[in-house]
Design goal:
By secondary structure, this protein is an alpha/beta fold. The chain is built from 13 helices and ten strands. About 2% of the residues have low confidence.
């Protein structure tokens, strides 16, 4: 079989010397002080996150995948047992992209595509929650990125009508993975603030009943990791989202973003967004806080979703599907279950496509390989037992 994007960034000699001292579950505190590093010296002096220079645990989900998962010091990015950072394919699996989902473009572009994506299984949970209230499963995807939300809605059985994204490099991945499945869909590259781009989105959708408009306007201004600058023009892109919703008049909209959006300017940002949708006639549900690991994603990642209905329907918090002891649910997917079957690689190799036969040993392997659908995957998870360490 062909395995795509299973490449990892080479560590420098200094980074490798650090990595060999970091045990599973360890971090910068395990690196000997005699190893020279100005950054480490600053971290030791001022203190730092325990995820810095971190190595993943095989028996827990990964930490949040960021756009810097290729860097040793920027998070918990070390493979549990191999002395390298996670590969692009491993990061994609932690995000819940199936192995058939190919990321195109330069390595740096792929880091951003994967790290910025909404986990498809998280999007699938939302899609499944609103599906019973829909007459049409047609959807339009705005701020589409590399396709995380769209992949989740596709998993749930929705039909893509049109998608828009300003970053051509990201959209190349989106189109590559969606064009065959949706040959009649319109893929519109360009700035949604431009009238001609917005007109193309409307024109592509005008002959269809649109069930849902989905999207996640850029969140840099809202993110805890960013500056959260209230003057950042990216914080106003939600108004373009509202504008398209008003013009298309879908049954529902799904607005996805980071948790920081709820507290920015003491909550006034979220209030402004909700009021904007209410002003065009939508009933807006209480913002939903989601933990990715509770919906089959092998990653600790939190997102916020604001959902609105044209017909007065209110959507409540989806029930968790995974949890820990005492909750009566299967435990979250672990790092080992997510990537343990993937072949060992040498960091720094540039083999974006490899022919390999690797074992399918876990329910998550089966889902990622397309052997089972989500319902069968979940059924298997309900009956699964801890597996031996296979990484």
């Amino acid at each position: 079989m062909k395995l795509y994007n299973h490449v990892a960034t080479r560590l420098s000699d200094l980074e490798y010397e650090m990595a060999i001292h970091i045990p599973e579950g360890g971090n910068w505190k395990n690196i000997p002080e005699e190893i020279p590093s100005l950054r480490l010296a600053q971290i030791r002096k001022s203190g730092g996150r325990t995820t810095y220079y971190g190595r993943m645990r095989h028996d827990r989900p990964s930490y949040t995948i960021t756009t810097y998962f290729n860097r040793l010091g920027n998070g918990c990015n070390l493979h549990p047992f191999q002395n390298r950072v996670m590969s692009n394919r491993e990061a994609a699996r932690f995000q819940s992209f199936p192995d058939s989902y190919v990321f195109v473009g330069s390595k740096s572009a792929q880091y951003k595509q994967i790290g910025n994506a909404v986990p498809p299984l998280l999007a699938r949970a939302i899609a499944s929650e609103i599906m019973p209230h829909l007459d049409s499963l047609n959807y339009v995807d705005l701020f589409a990125g590399a396709g995380g939300i769209s992949e989740g809605f596709s998993m749930a059985g929705y039909n893509l009508i049109a998608a828009n994204e300003i970053e051509k490099k990201y959209f190349e991945t989106y189109i590559y993975n969606h064009k065959k499945q949706y040959p009649d869909a319109e893929f519109i590259v360009g700035d949604i603030t431009r009238c001609d781009i917005k007109e193309k989105i409307i024109a592509a959708s005008e002959n269809y009943d649109i069930g849902v408009v989905v999207g996640g306007p850029p969140c840099q201004g809202f993110s805890y990791a960013g500056w959260r600058d209230p003057e950042d023009t990216r914080n106003q892109l939600f108004k373009e989202f509202v504008s398209v919703v008003e013009l298309l008049n879908p049954e529902f909209f799904v607005f996805e973003n980071v948790p920081g959006i709820l507290t920015m300017r003491n909550g006034d940002v979220a209030k402004e967004i909700i009021e904007a949708f209410e002003c065009i006639g939508y009933t807006v549900s209480t913002p939903i806080k989601l933990n990715a690991e509770e919906y089959g994603v092998p990653q600790r990642r939190k997102r916020v979703v604001i959902i609105g209905s044209r017909d007065g329907v209110r959507i409540s918090q989806p029930k968790p599907l995974f949890g820990y002891c005492g909750e009566g649910l299967p435990e979250p997917i672990t790092v080992q279950e997510a990537i343990g079957s993937l072949p060992e690689i040498t960091a720094g190799e540039d083999n974006m496509v490899m022919d390999t036969e690797y074992p399918i040993t876990t329910p998550y392997d089966m889902l990622m390989n397309g052997v089972v659908d989500f319902d069968r995957f979940y059924e298997l998870c309900l009956n699964r037992r801890p597996i031996p360490n296979q990484i």
